[in-house]
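User: I'm preparing a small set of examples for a lab meeting where we compare how different chains pack in three dimensions. I only have the primary sequence for this one, and I'd like the structure in token form so I can line it up with the others. Please keep the answer compact; I'll paste it straight into my notes.
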Amino acid sequence: MKNTANDVSIKPVRNDDMRMIFEWRNTPALVKLGSSGREVSWEEHCNWFDRVLKSGNMALYIIYNEHDPAGQIRFEKEEDETYIVTIYLTDQYTGKGIGVISLKMGVEVMLRERPERRFIAFIKDNNEASIAAFSKAGFKRITNHAKTPIGHIAMFCESGTGA
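Assistant: Understood. Below is the structure token output for the 163-residue chain.
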């Protein structure tokens, strides 16, 4: 069963979300669930969470399916007004349309604050579900981004092209 926009919401991380965030940080199953499709080492996974919790250059939102936390979406400042977008969903919420809906919501929130923002995502070339999700949110495939990891594609969205 696919979810609808009425089922999904995003909220900025608050202090009372920290216990849940640390549970996610310490859950090995999340290591392979990045919407980019990239598999990360356990050490990289933990380092990412630690950076998120300490950094002022990131916006982090909890994704809710109705009232249940389903994952998170982050916007990490890359340069000027460009942000790298990553979505993590817990295992039971993948493949239900939540990623697409929360991605659109997150981009809308970020653009409302500053309409000149741009977003980029790196997705495994063979991860059709993530490619479709980012495409539906207004991201366009690009081929010339210098930081694209081997075996991945870059997808780009800016004000006026998405959400």
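A couple of notes for your slides: The two ends are 23 Å apart (CA to CA). DSSP finds four helices and seven strands in the chain.

User: Perfect, thanks.
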